[in-house]
Amino acid sequence: MPSISPDYLLIQIFNGLVNGGFYALLALGLSIIFGMLRIVNFAHGVMYMLGAFVAYYGAQLVHLPFFAALIVAPIVVGAFGLGIEVLLLRRLYSLDPLYNLLLTFALVLIIEDVMRLAAGALGSPYQTPDILSGATNLGFTVYPTYRLFVIVVCLIVCFAVYLAIERSRLGARIRAATEKPELTRAFGIDTRRLVSGTFAFGAALAALAGVLAAPNTNVSPTMGDSIIINTFAIVVIGGLGSIRGSIVAGFALGIIAAVGAVLYPPISNTLIFIVMVLVILFRPAGLFGTAERTA
Amino acid sequence: MNTSRLFLALSTALAMTLPAAAPVPVGADAGPIKIAVITDMSGVYSAIAGQGAVEATKMAVEDFGGSVLGRPVEVDTIDHRNNGPEAAAKAAEAFDGGAELALDLTNSATAIAVDAVAKQKHKLEIVTGGASSALTGANCSRYTYHYAYDTYALAYSTGHNIARQPDGKTWYGIVPNYVFGQSMLSDFTSAVTSEGGSFVHSDMYPFPGTTDFSSYLLAAKESKAQVLGIFNAGADTVNTMKQVKQFGLDKTMKIAVGLLFLSDVDALPDVFAGSHITTSWYWNQDKAARDWADRFTKRVGGGLRPTSIQAADYSATTQWLNAIKAVGSVDADKVQGYLDGRKFNDFYAHDAQWRARDHSVIHTMIVVDVLDKSVIKEPHAWYKIIETIPADKAFRPEAQSTCNKDW
Amino acid sequence: MIAGRRGAIVGAALLVLGLVLPVIPGVYIVFAIDLVCFALVAVAFDVLLGFTGLLSFGHALFWGGAGYVATIAIAHGVTSFPLEVLAGVAYAFVLSAAVGAISVRRSGIFFAMITLAIAEIQYFLAYQMIDLTGGDNGLTVATRGTFFGLSLEDDHVYYYLVLAITAIATVVAVRIVTSPYGAVLAAMRENENRAKSIGYDTDRFKLAAFVVSGTLAGLAGALYAIGNRLSGLDGVDWHTSGAIVMMTILGGIGTIYGPMIGAAIFQALDFFVSKTPIGDKTNIVMGLVFAIIILIARRGVVGELMHRLRPSVVLPFEDEEPILL
User: Fold this and answer.
1) Contact status, residue B78 vs residue B67, Cβ threshold 8 Å
2) Which of B208, B275, B242 is nearest to A214 (CA)?
3) Cβ–Cβ contacts within 10 Å for residue B262, how many?
4) pLDDT at A185
């Protein structure tokens, strides 16, 4: 094991922030969806994957530049998510939410296989945009510019979403609809539109993470598989439905995993599950959740 | 409750007394001779083998004349779906239904699962796709031959080729912590140290589940090693290579990739350009290879070139059919007796031999550079051959085999 | 439907089907063995989901884990079939008691998440404990062992043994859920607080159900692994947990016999679709079937059938009367 110099540790923390950024974005979307719809969206990983593919196909077919993809992919996938919510998920709201969980599980099977037939199982090429390639001198190290970009984007988006939900009027309505749906409806607020919009927004966030991931990771139909289970864990740790929880847990676990990966690799992939089990046992509301959410 | 007790009694009684009617295995000495191509038709390995493997096998049968010993030869396609028990069940069904050979087995777990079935049914299995050297080690069997390549051959050839050079002595390994990764590391280490090189350090990263290799890549850079050994496969290799380019590591270190196929490069040429790998065959390596590849491409369409696995399937089929003709029987024991120790040569396997000691089919291997798409002379011409490793060196020496030979 | 004479008739019919399955054209004996094992794990799962409403997303823990333990036993020289099975079942029993103890306190999504997480931990352990499990290569063994002197290598002999064991285990499951204990479970599912206020320790009941479910799933997994003479990572993969859920829902939650049919349909789809020209689209077919069932035929094949015949019965998750006549 290479000796851990302070510089090296700092680099690892940056690496952790990159991964944490992805976790936070994904956990945010999943958490918002759970908070509003009470469903655990298994298809979240697929939205992430579709985001990356929109960027890929965009580049292939219409030379869509990366920065444009950052806007286009979330819109496209958000619309797709909206379609799913309106056509499929909505039918099962009167039932136990576990049915919707299972429905999203079925959707994963279908969508992943369709994408495999369309794009092949191997992977599709996506390059880092030229302007962001290369490295930046941070003083203690030379670090890839693209990764810094990812950290910045994730932080900004997370903060923006947090502000929007905690501070804006729309956010207040969303929170009201989440906590007391009947009462909110009684006030004349169209909760159905809020619900659909929320799902679409969650999907859009996942798609954004997918576009950000495309230059860094293999764009393949199963790229969401490995990330979805970890995202569940993060959402639970942060607190199902808690915006703050998802963001903090996401970044924190990203850093912990990155540091753990060099200190003691064998435990690294199970660490997140062990933490999740502990949280469920001793603080089921999660680090930031409220007690009433423990169903 | 009366009905419940009746139910219980009924079930036990019937289960114990009903005579087991075992169907007679079909095709004992009449009817067509079947080859079961057991491959991944829809998953991660479908491009490496998949439909192309089936086509290559059919091509071999047709070129052979379509029949042997007066019986027609049929090729059956079986999708193992990367599931061990499913592969075993389907293989057993195929064998009982007249298949005399299980071929391809891309995915080591399925290869090993079918290895046991072949042994049980006394039928042959020729593995071209699976990589695990356990097939000629702990899981060696009278009825299984490991045809195309294994982890040792990959490691030895690339390891030796690079470590032989003055700028290839110090290595840093990125190793997934599972059987494949561990075998690659241990085989690469022997190859490198035998040329006077050494591994500065290796990161055994958690597998599966790691998609970010930045920590390890940075550590590799810090170590100032000359060579970066990437001993993973599939999506992991793609991720690692993408991140290698991002960190600019390929500018300062040589990149040795453990396992790569032509189809991988076809999918992601920019990612793999500049790496060094070993393969058993390349479609443009010489005239014989090219002639065959041209026929394959014409047959399959789409302009795609065959991978080494697909060529191996053709070669293995032809050799097996030849053996049957020579022996005058499909009996696995007799064919195995004929093959053991036999030397042969074809467009795929040069200086080849069906090694009797452990059923490793040895042949020359080639070390290649993966070219950048700006310099390739025609589509899919990704490789530049930099060394040919002789058959007796490329594979694990007999003396080191861990096969407990029981035949 | 499960209890009483009607239940016995359905059970007997299934048993007869099981007896003749191997001679149905197109059905290969090993496929039949696998099918019966899956039928049993679906029954095991239904004991939990159908009767306590707890959705476990980690049953691969027991199915795959017991499978590994059984093959590890064989690999270490055990040749007595009862002992091999016992090893696997014991593992599943202890594990389900431990996991159950910590997880039944939670319900709904949290319960599902705990089981999923622990199953993932077992998965990663299986990957890494290569000396014991063979890692990604899997663990193959040369024999199925003997049953009181009878060799089990013949597929047909093994099939009928597995069928007998499954039949007995199913009877046990039916007895449990139709017993007074089962009635308490039903009451708990309907209104847990009321059951608690009467004085039932609901967590204990749930734990018992979980242990029964886990142990039976382990039995099924051990039979499967021994039958195939191999265990591998697919058994402990979360996709397998998902498949078990699908089979049960396909057949009909809360009907015990329904999930057996669900398992048969699921396995048949999986096995046979991959042989057709659309074979490489098997996952799409499975996903579509499952999605359609969830959307419009939630009671599952058997559940829907029962609903036509007896409209008064309703599904466990619809917060009304359970499916017990």
Assistant:
1) no
2) B242
3) 25
4) 76
pLDDT of A139 over the 70 cut? yes
Give the three-state DSSP class for B104: strand
The answer to whether B380 and B306 are in contact (CB under 8 A) is no
Q: Is residue A184 part of a domain?
A: yes
Query: Hey, what amino acid is at A47?
Result: M
Helices and strands, counts by H and E, chain C:
14, 4
Domain ranges of chain C: 4-318
Residue C272: which region, alpha, beta or left (left: phi > 0; alpha: psi -120 to 50)?
Answer: alpha
To probe the interface with A, which of B242, B250, B265 has the most A CB atoms within 10 Å?
A: B242
Residue A257 lies in a domain: yes
Residues of A with CB under 8 A from a CB of B: 1-2, 8, 11-12, 15, 18-19, 113, 116, 120-125, 127-128, 133-135, 141, 144, 146-147, 215-218, 220, 222-223, 226-227, 230, 258, 261-262, 265-269
CB proximity list for A37: less than 8 A, separation 6 or greater: A85, A89, A93, A97, A100, A195, A198, A199
Confidence label for B3 from pLDDT (cuts 50, 70 and 90): very low
| B&C contacts, CB < 8 Å | 148
Q: Which amino acid is at A229?
A: I
Q: Which residue of chain A comes nearest to B202, CA vs CA?
A: A1
CA–CA dist B185, B190 (Å, integer)? 9
**Residue range C213-241, pLDDT digits in tens:** 999 999 999 999 999 999 999 999 999 99
What domains can you pick out in chain B, each with its CATH number? 33-149+290-363 (3.40.50.2300), 152-279+367-393 (3.40.50.2300)
For residue C191, give both structure tokens.
Answer: 């209104």
d(CA A108, CA C140): 32
In the structure, what pLDDT confidence band is assigned to residue A256 with cuts at 50, 70 and 90?
confident
Q: Model-level pTM?
A: 0.89
Q: Which residue of A has its CA nearest to C287?
A: A106
CB pair distance less than 8 Å for B85 and C154: no
Domain containing A168 equals 6-123+132-293
- Please tell me if residue C278 touches chain B, with a CB cutoff of 8 Å: no
Residue pLDDT, tens place only, A117-138: 898 877 888 888 888 887 888 8
User: For the residues C284-301, what does the mean pLDDT come to?
Assistant: 90
Neighbours of B164 (CB within 10 A): 16
- Counting Cβ atoms within 10 Å, is residue B250 exposed (0-12), middle (13-18) or buried (19+)? middle
Per CB-CB distance under 8 Å, the chain A contacts of B273 are none
Between 3.30.1150, 1.20.120, 3.10.450, 1.10.3470, what CATH number should domain C4-318 receive? 1.10.3470
- Residues of A with CB below 8 A from C248's CB? none
Q: Rounded distance, CA C237 to CA C223, Å?
A: 18
Residue carrying the six token digits 């929320």? A198
CA dihedral C149→C153→C157→C162, nearest 10 degrees, is 90
Residue A1 lies in a domain: no
DSSP for B170-235 reads EEEEEEESSHHHHHHHHHHHHHHHHTT-EEEEEEEE-TTT----HHHHHHHHHHT-SEEEE---TH
Contact B60, B314 (CB under 8 A): yes
| Burial tier of B385 (Cβ tally within 10 Å: 0-12, 13-18, 19+) | middle
C28 in reach of chain A (CB within 8 A): no
Question: For testing the chain C interface, which of B2, B4, B79 should be mutated: the one with the most C CBs within 10 Å?
Answer: B4
pLDDT computed for residue B1 by the predictor = 42
pLDDT (average), residues B207-226:
86
User: Taking 90 as the threshold, does the pLDDT of residue B145 lie above it?
Assistant: yes
- A117: domain CATH number is 1.10.3470
